[in-house]
Every structure is written in C-alpha cells, then in structure tokens.
C-alpha cells in the first residue's frame, strides 16, 4: 500500500477540470495553471456562466496564447446530472465554489461515484465530516481520492507538521505545536465560508459525532489535535492564541493514517501575536464575531459588507505574507521548523490548489483512496512541488 505508483485509469477527456473558475480564487488558480501547467496537460474551465468563462479565457490567453483553445464546460453546483458528467470527464476535479456546505456536496458525491480525484479549499469542519460519512466508503470502492483543504487551510499546517515529524525520532511519542503569523486580508467568499461555519455550531458538533461513529479506532496508537490554552510561548517569543480551525483535525488525521507520527501524537495550532494588547483585542474580536455569527440577521449583515467574488487587489496581495513556525519534540530531541510564503489567502492558496491538482494528475503517489489529507494522499511529492513553486519549508534549529 505504501508503494508509490502512477495510477492508471480509463482515458478521460481531461486531466484536470477547474470548477468555479470565474470566482476570485478560481481566477487566480486558472492564472497559475495558465503560467505553470506543463505542455500537453489537458485541462478545462467549468462554471455556471459561459459568458464569464469566455471572458476569463480571453484573459488567460494573454498569459499563454494556447489558452485561447481551453475547453469551457457549463455546470451548476445544484445540477446533479451535469456534475456527474463533469466528474466523469476528468481525472482530477478542483473546486473553489463555497461555502462548501451549501454548494459542495453534490460535486463530492459525483467524484466518489465516478472514481475521480477531488481537491477543494474548504476550511469547514462540518462539510469535511459529512463528506467522510457519506462518501468515504464509496470513494474507496471506486478509487477516488477526496482531498479537502488544499489551500492555506490546511496545507501549511499539514505538510509543515509532516516535514517536522520526519526530523524527529521514529517510534516514540511526539508533540508538535504550530504558530501562525500573517498580515493578509480576506475576500468576500472566504468571509462567507467562515461566518457560515461559525453560525452552524450544533450542525458541526452533530457531524463530528457522526464521523466518530463511522471512523475506525486506532487499536494501539493515538493521534490528537486538541485546542490549546492561551499562553506566552517562550519558543517563539509571542503570545499564542488557540485557533479553532480545521487544521488540528487535519494534522491529527494524517498522524492517525501514517505510522511515522509515532504511537502517541499531539498537535496544537495557535495564532502568534507579539504584543499582549493586540492579543487581548484579537481574542475579543474573534469572540464578538463568533457571537454575531449565531444571529442570522447579523451574519447576513456581515456577509453583505464584502461581496462574494471580491478580494484584495494585486498590490495588496503582493505585500502580504505568512509564516507558520513549528516546535516539535520527542525522544529527547527538539526541532524548530518554519513554513512561509506570500499572500496566504489568494496567491499562495491558488498555487497550493493548482499544485495539488497537478500532483494528483501527474505524480507517482501512494495507492490510497477515500477521504485523505494532503500528507497522506501526496506527502513528499506535494512537498517537493510546493518548495519548487516558492513556498519555503526550512529547519530553523534542532537540539
């Protein structure tokens, strides 16, 4: 099962289809593919508005004249038949259409049925857990690899922890903490997804319980992603505030699937803030946002402040950056690593999604299927791709 192979499947019309290509992040992902897709890659743009797709194709042709011939495929997120045809036409289907809990389930179902590899940008725990319960078993039967969270949620955390674990002793309990810093802004679509997830607390808890009932238990190993307590981190010299994101669960799932993480693994995920007043203000702002998200009228008002499809301009994205610092320890050894890059929400997220799709389409990978994390599905191959694409994974110190 761990042997790396190129997957063979019946010939399909396309290697990769990008669904939601005209949205903010979708257009950035299409632009990345136009600049970096290898010669001979058969890819297509998909969405519900052919006019918008045609205008996007014209812009892509300015980057690469060959894009003037890109196929355009019409499909709506609610049209089950069209989505089945879309999934059957390609080896890999990448989607940027969120909030995924509203617009993503039918596409996952189509990919699971057709044996099509799937990647998305979701950071919504309820959606990921529901898709596991509903489609993991079928995807295992058809050979589909369903890989969620292939952007800033949750590749830096997942592959950063994977990179860190490989520097620690094998076969011993391991502890890894991640500390996130960034100056980036968010788009309307990202805000809508975040507020939707925050406003669905009971549904999220119910989906997590259902997943636990379906998910096999580890008989002799343990892998956890608990929420840490706020604290001052001497390792980073910053205040560490727990981040209630999808990332710790993703890292823990990688640890559960890969024995290299040891018999007892724990990962905690924090926002890293230099000054205490900023940390207190940030915690208060997060608390207020969570509270407002519970009120439908307030949630709609907040969503209306930023229209879907809008986002920071190219100049602002060029000034944006992120770092995730990791502290890993186990077996008497301690390592400090870092993942860093440019604009996390858009430029680098588009890069991560595109490279994930290219990795599934072209690289020799472990022969696995079902709902998988990036570390489990792609591991070293995706790590190598992202490093070559300019996302930095480095060892800062080891003791």
Distance between the termini: 34 Å
Radius of gyration: 20 Å
The oligomeric state is: single chain
Q: Write down how many β-strands occur, each being a DSSP E stretch of 2 or more residues.
A: 17
| Secondary structural class | alpha/beta
Describe this protein's structure.
The chain has 399 residues and is α/β, with parallel strands linked by helices. Helices cover 45% and strands 22% of the residues. The strands form 3 sheets. Strands 8, 9, 10, 11, 12, 13, 14 and 17 form an 8-stranded mixed beta sheet that branches. The chain has a 7-stranded parallel beta sheet with strand order 4-3-2-5-6-7-16, sandwiched between helices. β3, α2 and β4 form a beta-alpha-beta unit. The radius of gyration is 20 Å and the shape is globular.
Helix/strand layout:
Elements: E1 4-5, E2 14-19, H1 24-36, E3 43-47, H2 50-63, E4 72-74, H3 80-88, E5 90-95, H4 100-103, H5 105-114, E6 117-119, H6 125-142, E7 145-147, H7 155-165, E8 174-182, H8 188-198, H9 201-214, E9 222-224, E10 231-233, E11 238-242, H10 247-257, E12 264-273, H11 276-293, H12 296-304, H13 314-319, E13 322-330, E14 333-341, H14 347-362, E15 365-366, E16 370-372, H15 374-377, H16 379-388, E17 392-398
Parallel strand pairs: 2-3, 2-5, 3-4, 5-6, 6-7, 7-16, 8-12, 9-12
Antiparallel strand pairs: 1-15, 8-13, 10-11, 11-12, 13-14, 14-17
């Amino acid at each position: 099962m761990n042997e790396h192979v190129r997957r063979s499947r019946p010939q399909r019309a396309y290697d990769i289809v990008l669904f939601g290509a005209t949205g903010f992040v979708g257009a950035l992902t299409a632009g990345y593919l136009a600049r970096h897709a290898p010669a001979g890659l058969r890819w297509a743009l998909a969405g519900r508005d052919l006019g918008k797709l045609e205008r996007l194709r014209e812009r892509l042709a300015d980057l690469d004249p060959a894009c003037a011939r890109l196929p355009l495929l019409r499909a709506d997120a609610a049209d089950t038949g069209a989505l089945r045809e879309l999934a059957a036409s390609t080896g890999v289907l990448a989607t940027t259409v969120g909030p995924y809990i509203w617009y993503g389930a039918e596409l996952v179902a189509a990919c699971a049925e057709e044996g099509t590899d799937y990647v998305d940008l979701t950071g919504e725990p309820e959606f990921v857990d529901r898709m596991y319960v509903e489609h993991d078993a079928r995807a295992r039967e058809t050979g589909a690899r369903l890989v969620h969270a292939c952007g800033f949620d949750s590749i830096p955390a997942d592959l950063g922890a994977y990179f860190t674990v490989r520097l620690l002793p094998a076969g011993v309990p391991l502890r890894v903490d991640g500390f996130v810093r960034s100056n980036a802004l968010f788009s309307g679509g990202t805000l809508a997804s975040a507020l939707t997830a925050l406003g669905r607390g009971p549904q999220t808890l119910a989906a997590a319980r259902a997943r636990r009932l379906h998910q096999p238990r580890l008989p002799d190993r343990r892998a956890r992603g608990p929420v840490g307590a706020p604290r001052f981190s001497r390792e980073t010299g910053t205040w560490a505030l727990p981040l209630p994101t999808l990332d710790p669960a993703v890292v823990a799932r990688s640890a559960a699937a890969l024995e290299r993480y040891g018999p007892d693994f724990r990962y905690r995920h924090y926002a890293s803030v230099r000054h205490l007043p900023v940390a207190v203000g940030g915690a208060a702002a997060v608390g207020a946002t969570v509270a407002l998200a519970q009120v439908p009228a307030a949630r709609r008002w907040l969503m209306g402040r930023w229209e879907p499809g809008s986002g920071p301009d190219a100049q602002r994205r060029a000034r944006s950056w992120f770092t995730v610092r990791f502290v890993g320890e186990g077996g008497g050894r301690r390592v400090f690593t870092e993942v860093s890059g440019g604009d996390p929400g858009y430029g680098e997220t588009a890069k991560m999604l595109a490279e994930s799709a290219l990795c599934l389409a072209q690289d020799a990978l472990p022969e696995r299927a079902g709902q998988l994390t990036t570390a489990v599905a792609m591991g070293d191959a995706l790590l190598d791709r992202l490093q070559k694409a300019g996302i930095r994974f480095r060892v800062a110190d080891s003791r």
